[in-house]
Amino acid sequence: MEEQEATVRNINPNPASPSDEAGPPDASSIWARMAWTHLDAVRRRAPLVQCITNLVSMDIAANVLLASGASPAMIHSINEIQDFTPKADALYINIGTLSAEWVPAMQAAAKAALEANRPWVLDPVAVSASSYRMEACLELVKLRPTVIRGNASEILALSSACRISGAKGVDSAHESIDALDAAKSLAKSSNAIVAVSGAVDFVTDGDRVISCSNGVSMMQKITATGCAVTALIAAFVAIDPWNSLKATASALAVFGLTGELGMEMASGPASLRMHMVDWLYRLNESTVVTRARLSERS
Ligand SMILES: Nc1ncnc2c1ncn2[C@@H]1O[C@H](COP(=O)(O)OP(=O)(O)OP(=O)(O)O)[C@@H](O)[C@H]1O
Ligand SMILES: Cc1ncsc1CCO
Ligand SMILES: [Mg+2]
After folding, report:
1. Helix count (H) and strand count (E) of the chain?
2. 225 CB less than 6 Å from ligand 1?
3. Phi/psi of residue 297, each to 5°?
4. pLDDT tens profile 132-181
5. CB 3.0-4.6 Å disulfide test: which of 155, 166, 189, 294 passes with 179?
């Protein structure tokens, strides 16, 4: 979808901002305030997000959506797509545990979302694991996802449409920066916003690049955190579909921030997961505005 410049102007009108006393806010605080405004809008508007996601991620994705204020619906039968998908505010498709039965449902749902003018978000989990998976994913990319979010290995593989990317499995074998050019190229060829997650997350429309440095490495030790943040991206894009670049960056910052806050209390991956969900539910304006770390790269 075409980007508009409205979001940053619209979300920075807080006359009570402490930064006003010291002069105009700097660019990073404008981005951080944008992240808060997106989270606040998700809480107020509770977007309905249809998820066709892998079996491993269903629980964490649904809980992350609920804690954010969104309304998840894990509906994947092809028999329900026609009735349900046009009612959803956004659709999330994740190919992590795809099967011959699910692929037609994914394609039908993506088509239904397109026809209903709803944003839809693709997570190309382990896209280079098999030619079946790659071909299914390439067919989905043709159905014009609004956002594609993957780890560096997935974005590198999808961007070049190579069958062998050097990835081990569903985890990334690359740093996110290694995939930045591939992400820009994929964004241009697919007309989607592309996000590469990692120690630093990058979000691009092919020209502009927003980076986010929130998060902790322990998040990689919880299965399906990537799937969960893609679900969160769908909720954020649902409430700001004309600014999907910014909505995607906001979701990544908010999710990364829950990792940082959760890590202050966690003793390992299982408790981190629990604390992340709690923090997503509890996050307040001052924490997001002071701790979201977003910036635009030139
Ligand atoms: N080294 C790191 N430091 C900080 N945050 C990280 C790091 N690696 C990943 N993250 C964060 O973890 C989340 C998941 O990203 P990751 O790249 O691990 O996804 P993924 O490989 O697709 O995960 P999965 O397949 O398990 O769902 C993102 O929010 C990302 O910012
Ligand atoms: C472990 C795993 N295998 C297929 S999907 C998935 C969840 C993380 O992507
Ligand atoms: Mg993944």
Report:
1. 12, 9
2. yes
3. -90, 150
4. 999 999 999 999 999 999 999 999 999 987 323 344 568 878 899 999 99
5. 155
Helix (H) or strand (E) holding 45: helix 27-45
**50: closest CA among 86, 18, 88, 87?**
88
What does DSSP assign to residue 197?
Answer: E
Cα torsion 135, 137, 140, 145 to 10°: value is: -150
Which of 59, 95, 223, 273, when mutated, tests ligand 2's pocket best, judged by the most ligand atoms within 8 Å of its CB?
A: 223
CA distance linking residue 68 with residue 64, whole number of Å: 6
Q: What percent of the chain has pLDDT over 70?
A: 89
What's the CA gap between 93 and 122, in Å, rounded?
5
Tens-place pLDDT, residues 72-102: 999 999 999 999 999 999 999 999 999 999 9
- Tokens 């908010």 correspond to 254
ipTM over 0.95: yes
What DSSP string describes 101-161? THHHHHHHHHHHHHHTT--EEEE-TTTTS-HHHHHHHHHHHHT--SEEEEEHHHHHHHHHT
CB atoms within 10 A of CB 165: 24
Q: Is 96 in the pocket of ligand 2 (CB under 6 A)?
A: yes
CA of 230 to the centre of ligand 3 (A): 9
The tokens describing 260, both together, are 């940082």
